[in-house]
Amino acid sequence: MRVLFATAELSPVAAVGGLAAAAAGLAAELRHGGVDLDLVMPDYGEIPLVDETTIDLPVPGWVGAASVRSGVHPDVGPLRLIGVPGMARPHPYLQPDGEGWPDNSARFFRFGRALAALVEHDRPDVLHLNDWHTGSALAALTDPPPTVVSIHNLAYQGVAGPEWLDVIGPRAGHYEWWGDTNPLSGALALADRIVAVSPHYAEEIKTPQGGFGLDGPLRNRFGALVGILNGIDTDIWNPATDRHLAERFDATTLDKRPANRTALLDRLGLPDDSTPLATVVTRLTHQKGIDLLAPIIPLLAEIPLRMAILGSGDAVLAAELRSLAAAHPEHFAFVEAYDEALSHMMFAGADLFLMPSRFEPCGLTQMQAMRYGAIPVVTAVGGLVDTVPDADAHKDGLGFVAARPDSTALIAAIFRAVRRAKDGRRRAALQKRMMAVDWSWKRPAEHYVELYRDLV
Description:
This protein is α/β, with parallel strands linked by helices. It folds into 2 domains: 2-231 and 441-455, Glycogen Phosphorylase B (Rossmann fold), CATH 3.40.50; 254-436, Glycogen Phosphorylase B (Rossmann fold, 3-Layer(aba) Sandwich), CATH 3.40.50. Helix content is 33%, strand content 19%. The protein has helices at 18-32, 104-121, 131-135, 137-140, 183-190, 199-204, 215-220, 258-268, 315-327, 340-348, 365-371, 382-387, 407-422, 424-436, 442-455, and strands spanning 2-6, 36-42, 50-56, 67-73, 77-83, 126-130, 147-151, 176-177, 180-181, 193-196, 225-227, 277-284, 306-313, 332-336, 352-355, 375-379, 400-402. It has a 9-stranded mixed beta sheet with strand order 3-4-5-2-1-6-7-10-11, with helices on both faces. β13 (306-313), α9 and β14 (332-336) form a beta-alpha-beta unit.
Protein backbone atom coordinates (compact mmCIF):
# COMPACT_ATOMS: atom_id res chain seq x y z
CA MET A 1 0.00 0.00 0.00
CA ARG A 2 1.44 3.33 -1.10
CA VAL A 3 0.40 6.50 0.75
CA LEU A 4 1.21 10.04 -0.36
CA PHE A 5 1.54 12.01 2.87
CA ALA A 6 1.55 15.79 2.38
CA THR A 7 2.41 18.29 5.10
CA ALA A 8 3.62 21.90 5.33
CA GLU A 9 5.91 21.09 8.27
CA LEU A 10 8.22 18.20 9.05
CA SER A 11 10.68 18.06 11.89
CA PRO A 12 13.57 18.79 11.67
CA VAL A 13 13.33 19.97 8.04
CA ALA A 14 10.84 22.78 8.70
CA ALA A 15 9.40 23.00 12.19
CA VAL A 16 7.11 25.73 13.54
CA GLY A 17 4.57 23.98 15.77
CA GLY A 18 3.20 20.60 16.74
CA LEU A 19 2.39 19.70 13.11
CA ALA A 20 6.11 19.23 12.38
CA ALA A 21 6.69 16.77 15.23
CA ALA A 22 3.43 14.92 14.57
CA ALA A 23 4.10 14.54 10.85
CA ALA A 24 7.67 13.34 11.40
CA GLY A 25 6.74 10.91 14.16
CA LEU A 26 3.81 9.37 12.32
CA ALA A 27 5.70 9.16 9.01
CA ALA A 28 8.64 7.38 10.62
CA GLU A 29 6.43 4.86 12.40
CA LEU A 30 4.33 4.18 9.29
CA ARG A 31 7.49 3.42 7.35
CA HIS A 32 8.78 1.27 10.20
CA GLY A 33 5.51 -0.67 9.97
CA GLY A 34 5.95 -1.37 6.27
CA VAL A 35 3.84 1.36 4.66
CA ASP A 36 5.27 2.65 1.38
CA LEU A 37 5.08 6.31 2.37
CA ASP A 38 5.68 9.07 -0.18
CA LEU A 39 6.48 12.05 2.04
CA VAL A 40 5.79 15.41 0.33
CA MET A 41 6.21 18.98 1.56
CA PRO A 42 6.86 22.47 0.16
CA ASP A 43 10.39 23.29 -0.95
CA TYR A 44 11.28 26.18 1.35
CA GLY A 45 14.79 26.30 -0.11
CA GLU A 46 18.22 25.05 0.96
CA ILE A 47 16.91 21.61 1.96
CA PRO A 48 19.60 19.04 1.10
CA LEU A 49 18.74 15.78 -0.64
CA VAL A 50 21.01 12.90 -1.64
CA ASP A 51 20.54 11.16 -5.02
CA GLU A 52 18.31 14.01 -6.10
CA THR A 53 16.15 14.00 -9.21
CA THR A 54 13.83 16.76 -10.43
CA ILE A 55 10.76 16.73 -12.66
CA ASP A 56 8.50 19.55 -13.81
CA LEU A 57 4.82 19.39 -12.93
CA PRO A 58 2.09 20.34 -15.42
CA VAL A 59 0.11 23.14 -13.76
CA PRO A 60 -2.08 26.04 -14.97
CA GLY A 61 -0.45 29.33 -15.85
CA TRP A 62 -1.58 31.09 -12.65
CA VAL A 63 0.65 28.74 -10.63
CA GLY A 64 3.84 29.53 -12.54
CA ALA A 65 6.65 27.01 -12.94
CA ALA A 66 6.26 24.04 -10.58
CA SER A 67 8.63 21.16 -9.98
CA VAL A 68 9.30 18.40 -7.49
CA ARG A 69 12.72 17.43 -6.15
CA SER A 70 12.96 13.82 -4.99
CA GLY A 71 15.76 12.26 -2.97
CA VAL A 72 16.87 11.16 0.48
CA HIS A 73 17.04 13.63 3.35
CA PRO A 74 19.72 12.85 5.97
CA ASP A 75 17.22 13.02 8.85
CA VAL A 76 13.86 11.89 7.47
CA GLY A 77 14.76 9.56 4.60
CA PRO A 78 13.00 9.62 1.22
CA LEU A 79 11.39 13.01 0.65
CA ARG A 80 9.74 14.97 -2.14
CA LEU A 81 9.89 18.77 -2.19
CA ILE A 82 7.42 20.73 -4.31
CA GLY A 83 8.72 24.06 -5.56
CA VAL A 84 6.39 26.83 -6.72
CA PRO A 85 6.97 30.59 -7.11
CA GLY A 86 7.34 32.36 -3.78
CA MET A 87 7.58 29.22 -1.65
CA ALA A 88 11.30 29.36 -0.80
CA ARG A 89 11.53 31.50 2.33
CA PRO A 90 13.63 31.46 5.54
CA HIS A 91 10.45 30.79 7.57
CA PRO A 92 7.47 28.82 6.22
CA TYR A 93 4.88 31.38 7.28
CA LEU A 94 6.37 34.47 8.96
CA GLN A 95 8.41 37.52 8.04
CA PRO A 96 11.30 38.57 10.30
CA ASP A 97 8.99 40.98 12.16
CA GLY A 98 6.68 38.11 13.11
CA GLU A 99 3.90 39.03 10.69
CA GLY A 100 2.73 36.50 8.12
CA TRP A 101 4.06 36.68 4.58
CA PRO A 102 1.48 38.79 2.67
CA ASP A 103 1.33 36.22 -0.13
CA ASN A 104 0.81 33.10 2.06
CA SER A 105 -2.55 32.35 0.45
CA ALA A 106 -1.03 32.45 -3.05
CA ARG A 107 1.98 30.38 -1.94
CA PHE A 108 -0.10 27.53 -0.54
CA PHE A 109 -2.79 27.58 -3.23
CA ARG A 110 0.06 27.16 -5.75
CA PHE A 111 1.46 24.36 -3.62
CA GLY A 112 -1.95 22.67 -3.47
CA ARG A 113 -2.35 22.81 -7.24
CA ALA A 114 1.15 21.42 -7.79
CA LEU A 115 0.44 18.69 -5.24
CA ALA A 116 -2.64 17.72 -7.24
CA ALA A 117 -0.46 17.51 -10.37
CA LEU A 118 1.93 15.21 -8.54
CA VAL A 119 -0.97 12.97 -7.48
CA GLU A 120 -2.13 12.76 -11.08
CA HIS A 121 1.40 12.05 -12.29
CA ASP A 122 2.13 9.31 -9.73
CA ARG A 123 -1.19 8.17 -8.25
CA PRO A 124 -0.96 6.69 -4.73
CA ASP A 125 -3.35 4.18 -3.16
CA VAL A 126 -4.21 6.73 -0.44
CA LEU A 127 -3.75 10.50 -0.26
CA HIS A 128 -3.20 11.85 3.27
CA LEU A 129 -3.46 15.63 3.64
CA ASN A 130 -2.56 17.58 6.79
CA ASP A 131 -4.17 20.89 7.76
CA TRP A 132 -5.24 23.75 5.51
CA HIS A 133 -1.94 24.18 3.67
CA THR A 134 -2.55 21.00 1.64
CA GLY A 135 -6.35 21.12 1.49
CA SER A 136 -6.85 22.89 -1.83
CA ALA A 137 -5.32 19.97 -3.75
CA LEU A 138 -8.70 18.24 -3.73
CA ALA A 139 -10.26 21.15 -5.62
CA ALA A 140 -8.22 20.20 -8.70
CA LEU A 141 -8.65 16.41 -8.49
CA THR A 142 -11.82 15.25 -10.24
CA ASP A 143 -10.99 11.60 -9.57
CA PRO A 144 -8.85 11.60 -6.41
CA PRO A 145 -7.55 8.52 -4.67
CA PRO A 146 -9.15 7.69 -1.30
CA THR A 147 -8.30 10.69 0.86
CA VAL A 148 -7.65 11.29 4.55
CA VAL A 149 -7.48 14.81 6.01
CA SER A 150 -5.93 15.28 9.45
CA ILE A 151 -6.91 18.30 11.55
CA HIS A 152 -4.01 19.34 13.76
CA ASN A 153 -5.48 22.71 14.74
CA LEU A 154 -8.88 23.86 13.49
CA ALA A 155 -8.16 27.44 14.53
CA TYR A 156 -5.98 27.82 11.44
CA GLN A 157 -7.97 27.50 8.21
CA GLY A 158 -6.15 29.64 5.63
CA VAL A 159 -9.25 31.61 4.62
CA ALA A 160 -8.56 33.82 1.58
CA GLY A 161 -10.48 36.05 -0.80
CA PRO A 162 -13.18 34.85 -3.23
CA GLU A 163 -10.97 35.30 -6.29
CA TRP A 164 -9.33 31.94 -5.62
CA LEU A 165 -12.60 30.12 -6.29
CA ASP A 166 -12.14 30.98 -9.97
CA VAL A 167 -8.78 29.21 -10.32
CA ILE A 168 -8.15 26.43 -7.79
CA GLY A 169 -10.00 23.75 -9.73
CA PRO A 170 -13.27 22.25 -10.96
CA ARG A 171 -14.44 21.35 -7.44
CA ALA A 172 -13.85 24.86 -6.08
CA GLY A 173 -17.53 25.21 -5.14
CA HIS A 174 -16.88 23.09 -2.06
CA TYR A 175 -14.38 25.72 -0.87
CA GLU A 176 -16.76 28.69 -0.87
CA TRP A 177 -17.11 29.91 2.72
CA TRP A 178 -19.31 32.91 3.43
CA GLY A 179 -18.15 34.54 0.22
CA ASP A 180 -14.50 33.67 0.71
CA THR A 181 -12.27 30.67 -0.04
CA ASN A 182 -11.55 28.22 2.79
CA PRO A 183 -9.00 25.52 1.87
CA LEU A 184 -9.75 23.52 5.03
CA SER A 185 -13.54 23.54 4.79
CA GLY A 186 -13.37 22.34 1.19
CA ALA A 187 -11.00 19.52 2.07
CA LEU A 188 -13.24 18.43 4.95
CA ALA A 189 -16.21 18.35 2.58
CA LEU A 190 -14.39 16.21 0.00
CA ALA A 191 -12.27 13.84 2.13
CA ASP A 192 -13.25 10.22 2.63
CA ARG A 193 -12.02 10.27 6.23
CA ILE A 194 -11.32 13.13 8.62
CA VAL A 195 -8.95 12.59 11.56
CA ALA A 196 -8.78 14.84 14.60
CA VAL A 197 -5.57 14.37 16.58
CA SER A 198 -7.27 13.15 19.74
CA PRO A 199 -10.63 11.51 20.51
CA HIS A 200 -11.81 14.31 22.80
CA TYR A 201 -10.85 16.95 20.23
CA ALA A 202 -12.94 15.07 17.65
CA GLU A 203 -15.94 15.70 19.88
CA GLU A 204 -15.05 19.30 20.73
CA ILE A 205 -14.80 20.43 17.12
CA LYS A 206 -18.41 19.40 16.52
CA THR A 207 -19.54 22.05 19.01
CA PRO A 208 -19.98 25.81 18.44
CA GLN A 209 -17.45 26.44 21.23
CA GLY A 210 -14.73 24.32 19.65
CA GLY A 211 -15.54 24.25 15.96
CA PHE A 212 -14.22 27.67 14.86
CA GLY A 213 -17.18 28.01 12.54
CA LEU A 214 -16.81 24.52 11.06
CA ASP A 215 -18.81 22.64 13.70
CA GLY A 216 -21.85 22.38 11.42
CA PRO A 217 -19.98 20.85 8.48
CA LEU A 218 -18.15 18.51 10.85
CA ARG A 219 -21.41 17.37 12.44
CA ASN A 220 -22.72 16.71 8.94
CA ARG A 221 -19.67 14.48 8.33
CA PHE A 222 -19.81 12.71 11.69
CA GLY A 223 -19.61 9.30 10.03
CA ALA A 224 -16.27 10.18 8.43
CA LEU A 225 -14.73 11.83 11.52
CA VAL A 226 -12.51 9.89 13.95
CA GLY A 227 -10.07 10.86 16.68
CA ILE A 228 -6.60 9.30 16.79
CA LEU A 229 -4.29 10.44 19.56
CA ASN A 230 -0.84 11.62 18.53
CA GLY A 231 2.33 10.13 19.97
CA ILE A 232 5.81 11.45 20.72
CA ASP A 233 9.26 10.34 19.64
CA THR A 234 10.24 8.21 22.61
CA ASP A 235 13.81 7.92 21.36
CA ILE A 236 14.34 11.68 21.51
CA TRP A 237 12.30 12.03 24.69
CA ASN A 238 13.98 9.36 26.81
CA PRO A 239 15.44 10.36 30.19
CA ALA A 240 17.55 7.20 30.26
CA THR A 241 19.59 8.29 27.22
CA ASP A 242 19.06 12.07 27.06
CA ARG A 243 22.39 13.85 26.53
CA HIS A 244 20.89 17.18 27.67
CA LEU A 245 20.40 16.03 31.27
CA ALA A 246 22.73 16.51 34.21
CA GLU A 247 21.90 12.96 35.33
CA ARG A 248 20.12 10.32 33.26
CA PHE A 249 17.45 8.21 34.93
CA ASP A 250 14.42 6.01 34.41
CA ALA A 251 11.47 4.82 36.48
CA THR A 252 13.72 2.44 38.43
CA THR A 253 16.33 5.09 39.25
CA LEU A 254 14.23 8.07 40.32
CA ASP A 255 16.80 8.77 43.03
CA LYS A 256 19.02 10.20 40.24
CA ARG A 257 16.35 12.65 39.07
CA PRO A 258 16.94 15.40 41.72
CA ALA A 259 20.34 16.19 40.18
CA ASN A 260 18.47 17.62 37.21
CA ARG A 261 16.33 19.75 39.50
CA THR A 262 19.46 21.22 41.09
CA ALA A 263 21.02 21.92 37.69
CA LEU A 264 17.83 23.51 36.38
CA LEU A 265 17.39 25.78 39.40
CA ASP A 266 20.99 26.90 39.01
CA ARG A 267 20.44 27.58 35.29
CA LEU A 268 17.32 29.62 36.09
CA GLY A 269 18.86 31.52 39.00
CA LEU A 270 16.25 30.28 41.47
CA PRO A 271 16.97 29.13 45.06
CA ASP A 272 17.50 25.40 45.57
CA ASP A 273 15.38 24.34 48.54
CA SER A 274 12.40 22.09 49.21
CA THR A 275 9.86 24.37 47.52
CA PRO A 276 8.28 22.51 44.56
CA LEU A 277 9.20 23.70 41.08
CA ALA A 278 6.66 23.97 38.25
CA THR A 279 7.79 24.51 34.67
CA VAL A 280 6.10 25.49 31.41
CA VAL A 281 7.45 24.90 27.88
CA THR A 282 5.26 26.62 25.35
CA ARG A 283 4.56 29.10 22.60
CA LEU A 284 3.25 32.40 23.92
CA THR A 285 -0.15 32.45 22.21
CA HIS A 286 -3.74 32.96 23.33
CA GLN A 287 -4.42 29.25 22.78
CA LYS A 288 -1.78 28.18 25.30
CA GLY A 289 -3.33 30.19 28.13
CA ILE A 290 -0.08 31.46 29.64
CA ASP A 291 -1.82 34.72 30.54
CA LEU A 292 -3.98 32.65 32.92
CA LEU A 293 -0.87 31.97 34.98
CA ALA A 294 0.00 35.66 35.37
CA PRO A 295 -2.42 36.30 38.30
CA ILE A 296 -1.02 33.22 40.06
CA ILE A 297 2.63 34.34 39.96
CA PRO A 298 2.30 36.96 42.75
CA LEU A 299 0.80 34.18 44.93
CA LEU A 300 3.62 31.66 44.47
CA ALA A 301 5.25 32.37 47.83
CA GLU A 302 1.99 31.58 49.61
CA ILE A 303 1.36 28.23 47.88
CA PRO A 304 4.46 27.74 48.14
CA LEU A 305 5.73 27.07 44.63
CA ARG A 306 8.40 28.23 42.20
CA MET A 307 7.62 28.56 38.52
CA ALA A 308 9.69 28.84 35.35
CA ILE A 309 8.39 29.50 31.82
CA LEU A 310 10.35 28.80 28.63
CA GLY A 311 8.79 30.17 25.48
CA SER A 312 8.51 32.87 22.85
CA GLY A 313 5.79 34.47 20.81
CA ASP A 314 3.37 37.25 21.73
CA ALA A 315 5.44 40.35 22.52
CA VAL A 316 2.92 41.86 24.97
CA LEU A 317 2.71 38.66 26.99
CA ALA A 318 6.48 38.28 26.96
CA ALA A 319 6.86 41.80 28.35
CA GLU A 320 4.40 41.01 31.14
CA LEU A 321 6.31 37.84 32.03
CA ARG A 322 9.60 39.74 32.11
CA SER A 323 8.04 42.26 34.47
CA LEU A 324 6.72 39.50 36.74
CA ALA A 325 10.13 37.84 36.81
CA ALA A 326 11.73 41.12 37.87
CA ALA A 327 9.09 41.61 40.59
CA HIS A 328 9.31 38.05 41.96
CA PRO A 329 12.90 36.90 41.35
CA GLU A 330 12.89 34.35 44.19
CA HIS A 331 9.86 32.49 42.83
CA PHE A 332 9.51 33.07 39.09
CA ALA A 333 11.85 32.87 36.10
CA PHE A 334 11.11 33.54 32.45
CA VAL A 335 13.36 32.47 29.58
CA GLU A 336 12.21 34.06 26.33
CA ALA A 337 13.54 31.63 23.76
CA TYR A 338 13.09 28.43 21.86
CA ASP A 339 15.78 26.27 23.49
CA GLU A 340 15.70 22.54 22.74
CA ALA A 341 18.32 21.58 25.33
CA LEU A 342 16.71 23.65 28.07
CA SER A 343 13.28 22.19 27.30
CA HIS A 344 14.62 18.72 28.13
CA MET A 345 15.95 20.05 31.43
CA MET A 346 12.60 21.74 32.17
CA PHE A 347 10.92 18.34 32.01
CA ALA A 348 13.62 16.42 33.89
CA GLY A 349 14.08 19.00 36.66
CA ALA A 350 10.46 19.95 37.38
CA ASP A 351 8.23 18.63 40.11
CA LEU A 352 5.16 19.83 38.21
CA PHE A 353 4.51 20.70 34.58
CA LEU A 354 1.78 23.26 33.82
CA MET A 355 -0.29 23.30 30.64
CA PRO A 356 -3.11 25.87 30.98
CA SER A 357 -4.41 25.65 27.39
CA ARG A 358 -7.70 27.22 26.37
CA PHE A 359 -7.93 24.53 23.70
CA GLU A 360 -5.47 21.79 22.79
CA PRO A 361 -6.05 19.48 19.81
CA CYS A 362 -3.67 16.89 21.24
CA GLY A 363 -0.70 18.39 23.03
CA LEU A 364 2.77 16.88 23.05
CA THR A 365 4.51 18.51 25.99
CA GLN A 366 2.28 16.89 28.61
CA MET A 367 3.36 13.48 27.28
CA GLN A 368 7.00 14.55 27.18
CA ALA A 369 6.74 15.80 30.77
CA MET A 370 5.21 12.56 32.02
CA ARG A 371 7.91 10.60 30.22
CA TYR A 372 10.39 12.52 32.42
CA GLY A 373 8.43 12.17 35.66
CA ALA A 374 7.10 15.74 35.89
CA ILE A 375 3.53 15.70 37.23
CA PRO A 376 1.21 17.46 34.75
CA VAL A 377 -1.37 20.08 35.73
CA VAL A 378 -3.62 20.62 32.71
CA THR A 379 -6.97 22.03 31.67
CA ALA A 380 -9.87 19.78 30.68
CA VAL A 381 -9.63 20.37 26.94
CA GLY A 382 -8.86 18.30 23.84
CA GLY A 383 -6.08 15.75 24.01
CA LEU A 384 -5.27 16.75 27.59
CA VAL A 385 -8.46 14.94 28.63
CA ASP A 386 -7.33 11.81 26.76
CA THR A 387 -3.80 11.77 28.18
CA VAL A 388 -4.11 13.07 31.76
CA PRO A 389 -6.82 11.40 33.87
CA ASP A 390 -7.03 13.17 37.22
CA ALA A 391 -5.09 11.40 39.96
CA ASP A 392 -7.58 12.42 42.66
CA ALA A 393 -10.55 11.16 40.65
CA HIS A 394 -9.06 7.95 39.20
CA LYS A 395 -7.01 5.24 40.87
CA ASP A 396 -4.77 5.09 37.80
CA GLY A 397 -4.73 8.86 37.23
CA LEU A 398 -1.67 10.54 35.75
CA GLY A 399 -1.92 14.20 36.81
CA PHE A 400 -4.23 16.96 37.93
CA VAL A 401 -6.95 18.56 35.85
CA ALA A 402 -8.40 22.07 36.13
CA ALA A 403 -12.09 21.87 35.31
CA ARG A 404 -11.99 25.13 33.33
CA PRO A 405 -9.31 27.16 31.56
CA ASP A 406 -9.28 29.99 34.08
CA SER A 407 -6.94 31.12 36.86
CA THR A 408 -9.24 30.05 39.70
CA ALA A 409 -9.58 26.47 38.47
CA LEU A 410 -5.85 26.30 37.70
CA ILE A 411 -4.75 27.38 41.17
CA ALA A 412 -7.07 24.78 42.73
CA ALA A 413 -5.48 22.07 40.58
CA ILE A 414 -1.99 23.39 41.39
CA PHE A 415 -2.69 23.16 45.14
CA ARG A 416 -3.74 19.51 44.70
CA ALA A 417 -0.63 18.76 42.67
CA VAL A 418 1.66 20.44 45.23
CA ARG A 419 0.21 18.27 47.99
CA ARG A 420 0.98 15.16 45.94
CA ALA A 421 4.48 16.36 45.09
CA LYS A 422 5.26 16.77 48.78
CA ASP A 423 4.13 13.23 49.64
CA GLY A 424 7.22 11.23 48.69
CA ARG A 425 5.64 7.78 48.56
CA ARG A 426 2.53 8.77 46.59
CA ARG A 427 4.55 11.04 44.34
CA ALA A 428 6.95 8.23 43.37
CA ALA A 429 4.03 5.89 42.65
CA LEU A 430 2.47 8.50 40.37
CA GLN A 431 5.78 9.14 38.59
CA LYS A 432 6.33 5.44 37.95
CA ARG A 433 2.79 5.14 36.60
CA MET A 434 3.30 8.07 34.21
CA MET A 435 6.67 6.84 33.01
CA ALA A 436 5.31 3.34 32.32
CA VAL A 437 2.81 4.57 29.71
CA ASP A 438 3.74 3.93 26.07
CA TRP A 439 3.54 7.42 24.55
CA SER A 440 5.18 6.29 21.28
CA TRP A 441 3.72 6.46 17.77
CA LYS A 442 3.29 2.68 17.56
CA ARG A 443 -0.39 2.53 18.49
CA PRO A 444 -1.44 5.70 16.59
CA ALA A 445 0.29 4.40 13.45
CA GLU A 446 -1.59 1.12 13.74
CA HIS A 447 -4.87 3.06 13.84
CA TYR A 448 -3.89 4.99 10.70
CA VAL A 449 -2.94 1.81 8.85
CA GLU A 450 -6.31 0.30 9.74
CA LEU A 451 -8.01 3.44 8.45
CA TYR A 452 -6.01 3.34 5.20
CA ARG A 453 -6.90 -0.32 4.67
CA ASP A 454 -10.59 0.41 5.11
CA LEU A 455 -10.35 2.87 2.22
CA VAL A 456 -8.55 0.73 -0.39
